[in-house]
Amino acid sequence: MKLYINEKNRKGHIEPEIYGHFSEHLGRCIYEGIYVGEDSPIPNKNGMRTDVVEALKKIKVPVLRWPGGCFADEYHWMDGVGPKESRKQMINTNWGGVTEDNSFGTHEYFELCDQLGCKTYVNGNVGSGSVREMSEWVEYMTLDGVSPMADLRKKNGREKPWRVDYFGVGNENWGCGGNMTPAYYADLYRRYQTYVRTYDSNAPIFRICGGANADDYKWTEVVLRECFAEPAPKEVHGMMDGLSVHYYCGAEKGPHKGSATDFSEDDYWYTMNRALGMDELIYRHGAIMDQYDPDKKIGMMVDEWGCWHDVEPGTNPGFLFQQSTMRDALVAGATFNIFNRHCDRVKMGCIAQIVNVLQSVILTDGPEMILTPTYHVFHMYRFHQGAELLESCLSETKKVGNDKYQMDNIQQSVSQDKDGVITITLVNTSLDGEETIEAVLMEETPKKAEGFILHGGLNDYNEFGKEPVLYEKPLDVQLTQRGVKFVVPACSVVTVRVY
Ligand code: AHR
């Protein structure tokens, strides 16, 4: 099979934030997974686990969303600042009913982002919070000068403001964020976002409007219609920089999603078919956005996505802790190829969630840490961050699947970085057919090439206390006169770099 690459046709810029992450006060994501406190025997810097932070740095986390999720619309930020001993204890009603001691709050979040070297994405509370609470949080975080909130921040030990790159105005307001209708949320959005002030014109805050659940196109339509309504179309564009979409996939729909590890080939085809549905989703939400915003000034922010399976047996059902197999890695690789190919509209993707929850890149157990197969996909795809998408197409495709779901065997995307290096990423969704790929460049003659592969059994996963079975390995790549040639085995994710 040939993969034609046209270096002359650059299709758009791949924002690094497409490879973003999401961290919520949910189960063992923040507490234990990331934050263990300064007095913990687990090595840490200012309370953040050193092993986890160091591993995350290797995948170049571009942005980290916090504090939720559903948690965001019940979070009152004031409870999480000031001396830890006097911070309020609360019940995490969404996730397991456990006590939240607020020891990880605003200051700790910015410390974490500082250690990771990533952009910040704070999600505000619309569901149960006031406009004043939200605007004061923004003032607390970003105002340099004299004001009640800036003074409070200084009193709490932080002289200079932080930079808030992205601010989400509510989360899933059609559900856990207040069960609102789109029209009601749109009105609230207009009002709340007014007070998300940018205090430093050199550091504008990118405001994200709460978007649809999966294929709820009506939500997108109504929210855009209401927020772009006449008579002030020019001003209205200023109300929204991004619109979110959430999309999860797993073995089945409904309350029983199926085991993360013990699943059949049919479950896999269902999951992969649903994962590939991301393409249609982006296309259809994007088509609605195009009607209002043909110049694509507003970003589509897929700020929650990933595989949602049943929790691991014996774990708290409210903690959503799941293992991660090669199936999840294939989903991650295919999803990133879709995001890359829609980089003209998709400006952010945040996998849910970074550590110890749904499709996490890292799992921890006490002092132990494992890297999931999805971690390796992030690592193999990191070269796309900030690169330019190139036109690419396959000469032919083969259909694979079962009686119900059929799909192309190879999913791909190609980009070129600022040094001219071309990155090809492919997923072979087939469970039994390898594919030889001959990549043909239109213009350049390659001088050097290297490849990396993640390959294993569909149900394989890395376990605590055992040698990892899934990790990145080198892949043989041959230089040809006009490109490169390599084999993509069944059930694998591949990266090839062409210099
Ligand atoms: O990621 C888990 C939950 O899924 C989030 O809190 C919520 O936004 C979504 O429904």
Describe the overall structure:
- It is a single chain.
- With 499 residues, this protein is α/β, with parallel strands linked by helices.
- It has 2 domains: 15-386, TIM Barrel, CATH 3.20.20.80; 390-498, Sandwich (Immunoglobulin-like).
- The chain is 24% helix and 28% strand.
- The strands form 6 sheets. A 10-stranded mixed beta sheet has the order 23-22-26-20-19-16-1-21-25-24, covered by helices on one side. Strands 2-5-8-9-10-11-12-13 form an 8-stranded parallel β-barrel, surrounded by 5 helices.
- α5 (182-194) crosses α6 (217-227) and α6 runs parallel beside α8.
- It is globular and about 65 Å long.
- The structure holds alpha-L-arabinofuranose (AHR).
Helix and strand topology:
Layout: E1 2-13, E2 20-22, E3 44-45, E4 48-49, H1 50-58, E5 63-66, E6 90-92, E7 98-100, H2 106-116, E8 119-124, H3 131-142, H4 148-155, E9 166-169, H5 182-194, E10 206-213, H6 217-227, H7 233-237, E11 242-249, H8 265-292, E12 299-307, H9 326-341, E13 346-352, E14 362-365, E15 368-371, H10 373-381, E16 388-394, E17 399-401, E18 406-408, E19 410-416, E20 422-428, E21 435-441, E22 449-455, E23 473-475, E24 478-479, E25 483-488, E26 492-498
Parallel strand pairs: 1-21, 2-5, 2-13, 5-8, 8-9, 9-10, 10-11, 11-12, 12-13
Antiparallel strand pairs: 1-16, 3-4, 6-7, 14-15, 16-19, 17-18, 19-20, 20-26, 21-25, 22-23, 22-26, 24-25
Helix pairs in contact: 3-4, 5-6, 6-8, 8-9, 9-10
The structure holds alpha-L-arabinofuranose.
Catalytic activity: Hydrolysis of terminal non-reducing alpha-L-arabinofuranoside residues in alpha-L-arabinosides
Enzyme class: hydrolase
GO molecular function, one term: alpha-L-arabinofuranosidase activity
